[in-house]
Amino acid sequence: MSFRESLTSTVLCFVSFYQAPLQANDHPNVILMLADDMGVGDTSAYQDLTGNSDQDQVHTPNMERLARMGVRFVDAHTPSSRCSPTRYALMTGRYPWRNRLKHWVLFGAQGDPMIERDRPTIATLFKHAGYQTAMVGKWHIGLRYRRSDGSPAAGFEDADLRQPLFDSPLDHGFDHCWITSRSHGTSGPQPNQKKNGPNQKVGPGHIDGRTVIGATNNGRQIAKEFPQAYILKDLGERHSDNAMNFLTQHLEHDETKKSPFFLYYASNSNHTPHTPSDQIDDVPVAEASRSVAGEPMDRRSDFIYENDVALGRLLDYLETHDDPRKPGMKLLQTTMVIFTSDNGAEKNDNTATGPLRSNKGSCYEGGHRVPFLVSYPQAGIGDGNHTTSGQTNFSLMGLQDLFATFADLIDQPLPNLRDGEKGAEDSFSVLDAMAGEPIPYRPMFFNDHKQAEDHAACAMRFDELGLRGEAPSLWKIFFEAELLRSGTAQSTELYNLFTDLQETTDLSGFEPFNLQRGRLAMIAELHRNVGGHRLVEFASDERIRFEFGFPKKEFDGPHGQLVVDQIGDHFDGQSISGVNIQSKSFRGRSLKMTISAAVNGKTDDDKAVADECQFRPNARGLGLSGGEFDQVESGESLQIRFDQDVIVESAAIVAGNGVCGGYYTVGDDSPLAIYCTDGDIDAQDQSGILSDIGVLKAGEVFTLDSRPHYGVESPGRWRLHSLTIRLFKSVE
What we know:
Oligomer: single chain
EC number: 3.1.6.1
Shape: globular
Family: Belongs to the sulfatase family.
Number of helices: 15
Number of strands: 34
Low-confidence stretches: 12-25
Domain Sulfatase N-terminal: 28-410
Helix content: 10-25%
GO molecular function: arylsulfatase activity; metal ion binding
Region (Disordered): 181-208
Structural class: alpha+beta
């Protein structure tokens, strides 16, 4: 079977919308192994689909073993074509561009944490259900260190590595973690490198929980002696040993063995540089990879093979140890084991990516279609027998779906988005698909496209059944970066993957497809702007954009289904005690917004504050008069309320000649860093609207604060240009 032949079966997977929930006696253990930069052509488990020759294909016998034991997905995708955003989506069930990262990865030795403290993750999901949770390997979703006085560090330069980390995986649901901060080549200096000095800027090396285990008394220099030293070629063995130690200790201790476990194993391989370990558990790795034809392979293949050996070690352990909760039953039967990758291969050739176009960093299929293998015999997800042929599944799925899938697996409810809870906004369970049942379909996004002028461009998949005997369509439409940066869909390319999996024929220039492009653009704008796929069912088409620029612009009033209210003149010189704005949607539904302000948390109840500070709108937006400039600065903040529940789609904040900084909160939720339409806080340009703020309950406060996020960064100085909200559907 080839990828092309599999597409017919893909269509059949969403003919029926019946969902039969799986029945399981007890919660299973879960092991999720995530490879780095591994394409579908990098494993012999997919060789029949890629068509790679035996001479070119690296042999991965344990991945084949897992595929035969369980289920092989052939239409599995990462939500981004790069690692940090995919890892964020995997952990949170939310597209990464709903956070601040519109493209690229977290850069530098720290990288401001992408996940706020109170956002649910798959680890918190398991932990709240009574699991023991652990992680080994690559984190790359952001850390925060401490200064010598214990306060949060602004970055790596003022970090005291002897202090426990302020923010690590332990703050996001894991009981234990043994990690590298990011890709292994940039997570720390090796012992004898010149860069390993007191002012090194590479990274902290090994992290155990909150502890930088290689920290010394010589600034940021990392220890040079084993086992604290950071040695690239030892990482594969080290991660595998840490994983096995966690499993062994879990089974040996009375206080843990009665609980299920969740292990997130995020391998550093096979990201460059290719540094395979000499061996893992006495199994040779370096120079040990072989092609399916039996010939020695290159160093990159050795690094791929390292993943296979580590996976095999896990499977061997599960196969030979009983589950203490179920005497006589092996862990292999009671454990869901998943193997997948964070994006496509870093190498663009016909072997690593198979027949797919492009590779890592691209929204073409080679950048985000990845291997996905899963086994859980007790629940009918495979039979656990590695001598059978295994099952192949053609359902469309994304790694962001694992949050909802795990919730389904362990009978935990998803966060109630309509009631203002957050979490798993873009996640849908594929548990039934794993068991061979059809699942409903919905749009799916992929972002970070190096072929575009602005890499924040994205693509959307939208599949349709053929009607009246017509062939089905697996639409894939590409959009300019404006969709993610400002919420406006401008399409650039269109493909039908059912007939053109290699994306060779762009249909966007053909007139018969103009109507289709317009319809897909409307679907894309809805799902991009509404705050999450799961919010679509609650959201109406009634949107209001409040424009604070002064004087008014020409497009006053309704703008399609979006009502644009020019309200800057309502604020000029008004007291910060509060300005009330009455507005109506295009259907005539009324809404009241109240905006007030504060200085260092003090409102106009403090007379000195009231006397010194007034609203000051101009062409760039709404500012305040209490600081040196008529912007929001010097501890000033805007506080926004509505008289009914709304979805806050976005706030457009303009730095202008000011500074992009500060934070925002919704009610009592944890703060998140502000970014602007013309500035950001990351290494590459993440500017755009402050989007996907979420549900704001009636009377709840949405605060935009110019003060430093953690009290140590530069404060902000900016204006609020516009605010876009969406009403909920009326309850009849």
